[in-house]
Amino acid sequence: MHTADAVETIQREMTVFARRARAAAGRMHPELSLVSYTLLGHLEESGGCRATDLAVHYALDKSTVSRQVAGLERAGLIERRPDAADQRVQVLHLTGAGRHILAQVTESRRAAFRERLADWPAEDLSRFADYLVRYNASPGPGRQE
Amino acid sequence: MHTADAVETIQREMTVFARRARAAAGRMHPELSLVSYTLLGHLEESGGCRATDLAVHYALDKSTVSRQVAGLERAGLIERRPDAADQRVQVLHLTGAGRHILAQVTESRRAAFRERLADWPAEDLSRFADYLVRYNASPGPGRQE
DNA sequence: GTCAGGTGGTTGGGTTGTGCAACCATGGAG
DNA sequence: CTCCATGGTTGCACAACCCAACCACCTGAC
User: Is the pLDDT of residue B144 over 70?
Assistant: First the structure.
């Protein structure tokens, strides 16, 4: 009983969050959509990867990633480097400008979150973060083909 | 510092979740989009409300809600009832069919979540759920209620 | 009464994110 | 070399948005 309720709550609240996050993201940073931001973040975190890797990781179609990447390149935020080992592959890297924008947006997003989470005990915060990581790390229905 | 890390992780993981959830939702229930599902759920939970209420609650534009509602009505899942006190208002209610579909989708979504969360201790689950509720309940940049 | 301004809801127009399918180019067996 | 798999792009369609303009109704001031 407890568990079923919790599961239901989690699904509902996650969905609400998703909706609001997207709405808020556009308002805060019209110049860098939530998608683009996420992809840039992944690039920074991974230190460069292929478009296909992004697609797999975010359960996006490769065409979607391709277009996003094209936009980011057009904006000068990332660059493509050939892979010596495989001519088909383009390794994506952040440019200086990309790194700069990413840092800016990250900071302002972080500030918004921090404000929202201001009155949370540190222990709850880290536990919450841990739960989210654990949740996302687990193989879900939507991926892992 | 711990807190900054946790905040950053939360923001990142929430975003990842949002992306995957949306991708997965369409695959699982092509007949009832994530948005529609959410709106139906709210209608059930609230026992009927106005379109404007939905818009405010989900930080959506009223036009968006209007179109969603139109679709749901066309599909026979909800019905509009006049408000005796205010002729402008249409109170939205689930129909029998709407209730039926909602229950179906909820069940299958719940099953997917449950599977994903199967190996979580009950205590962690309820705490996770609690965190999400608390997070969403707090006034955010997108305003609340 | 009537007229103004506010609120619930719809519609037109445009943007973005997305998937699917078809396509090209390269890589790797056989 | 041939055949198929893989990384990536492009055409097309669609869903979900938002903004702005609009209609209908409510409310309060006159």
Answer: no
